[in-house]
Each structure stands twice: as structure tokens, then as C-alpha cells.
Amino acid sequence: MITSDATVQPQTAAEAYDIYQNSDSAVFIAGGQRLKYSKKHYKVAIELSHAGLKQITDMGDEIAVGAMVTLARMQVSSLIKELAGGAIANCISVVAHKDIRTNATIGAIMAVKDPFSVLLPVLLSLRVDVVLEGKGRMNLQDYLGCPPMGEMVTQIIIAKEQIYTAFTAYQTLPTDEPYLTGAVAMLPDSWRIVVGGRPGCAAIAENASTELTEKGMAAKENVAHIASEELDFGDFGTCSEQERRELTVEMVRKLIKNAWKGYTRLSQER
């Protein structure tokens, strides 16, 4: 567990970020489970539970999720459940450890950029912005590709779209971290294909997404192979680079089919 000389509880995000910027050594306490295993010492620990970041807000065309909203709250939120055919709530159910679902916050997940996250591939398949205190909004794809900037995540903003996302995670055991994750989203005029656990952070297969958008379901076999070839994969844990590539072909093929079925069902219900 981390230690600190002092712990502060700012009342606003702006106050918290000001303390962080003006300290030689500070850390945000925002539900990050990984901090339990860290032995680092900081001058200041900034506890964010009172900083006004626990709301899930309907903004009309968008939904704002505060950085201190937990996975458990997202899973049961009526606003979140309606998005992408329930993909966000469904992927959270893959997290087997109750304490992680109960305590892990969306802000901590964004900050860590976990390469084996079950949530990031789904969010990346949607149109999502990350809001950074004092720096404004940033597209999630751009944010995940940036090195640490000493930023403070205050919200994520999820667009309401006519979209269905199919998701899956490959695990040896239900309690293990996934060794490959994927999400495929179908929209009225485009597709988005995302692969995570490569073991790099979740990434959009841009070429495969374009090919599927332009040529449709008839090209799904070729699209699955394009996705496995255009992204970087590596040896990690019990799964090799080659195994991940081969699984990606199988996974993308299946997710395309599931996304098409789900989107068709949603369209008929409207």
C-alpha cells in the first residue's frame, strides 16, 4: 500500500488538480486497486471522494460519467444500460472480483490504461471523449495513445448513437485477466473493430474497420485476417504472439456476426 506524509480531501476537481500540480510528489486516490500493491511513498495523497466526480448525467445527446463513478454503478445505471445494446454493462460482468467492480472507478481505469482492461475495448468502439481538468476534452483513441502528461481525468463523455457493440474476452479461468479482448460495433453507416490484450492497450483496427464499412458482411472473413495482420501482438503470459493473431481472426469473425445480429434486432425494436 502507498504511504504519504499527508492526505488531503479537496472539494472540487480544480482544487485537487492545483494541489497535484504544485506538489513535488503527489498521487490521486481514486479507487485504483493497483495502489494496494504499490510500496511508493508520496508527500501528498489526494483523496477524490469529495471532489464532486460521482455523477452520471444525461446531457441530451451525450452521457457524462464522473471519474469517481465505480464499475458497479455503471453496470446498474439505467443510462449506461441503454448504450450499445448493453455492451458496457455486459463487459463489466466479466470482472469476476466483486471488490474490483465495487471500488474501481472509471477515472482510475482511464489513468492506468490497462492493456488487459475489459472495459476499454468497448468504450473505444463507441464515440467517447475523456475530460481532463484544465485541458478540456480529448478523444479516447488519442488519449490512450498519449504518454502520461500529469493529467487528471474528471469525466468521460459517451455519445448516444444508434449502435450495437458485441464484446468478448478470452480467459483461462473466470478469475484470470483476459489474454485477448475484442469489441466490434455496428452503426448505420460504419463499423468499428477494436482489439485489446495484445498485450498492448486496446486499439482500433483501422484498415479492417474501413474494409468492413465499404464492403459489408460479405467481406467479414477477409476483414478478420486484416485485423490480425495490421495490429501489433506480442508474447505475454500463457499466450504467444502467433496464438493471439490466430485467435483474433476467430474473434473478429464471430464478433462481426454477433454485432450484425444485435444491430438488426435493435433496429426492429425501434
Structural account:
The protein has a five-stranded antiparallel beta sheet with strand order 4-5-8-6-7. A four-stranded antiparallel beta sheet has the order 9-10-11-12. By secondary structure, it is of the alpha+beta class. Helix 9 packs antiparallel against helix 10 and helix 10 crosses helix 11 (241-269). A hairpin with a 4-residue loop joins strand 10 (180-186) and strand 11 (191-196). It is globular and about 60 Å long. It has three domains: 3-47, no CATH class; 56-159, Uridine Diphospho-n-acetylenolpyruvylglucosamine Reductase, domain 3 (2-Layer Sandwich); 164-269, Enolase-like, domain 1. It is 37% helix and 23% strand.
- Strands across the major sheet, in which order? 4-5-8-6-7
Oligomeric category? single chain
CATH-defined fold name of the largest domain: Enolase-like, domain 1
How much beta, percentage-wise? 15-25%
Instruction: Report on the biggest sheet.
Output: 5 strands, antiparallel
What's the number of structural domains?
3
CATH superfamily of the largest domain: CO dehydrogenase flavoprotein, C-terminal domain
Percent range of helical residues: 25-40%
- If you compute it from the alpha carbons, what radius of gyration comes out, rounded to the nearest whole angstrom? 19 Å
Level-1 CATH class name of the largest domain: Alpha Beta
CATH architecture descriptor text of the largest domain:
2-Layer Sandwich
Poorly predicted ranges:
none
Rough shape? globular
Task: Please provide the count of β strands.
Answer: 12
Q: What's the N-to-C terminus distance? A: 50 Å
- Output the helix-strand order: EHEEEEHHHHHHEEHEEEEEHHH
Q: Give the structural class.
A: alpha+beta
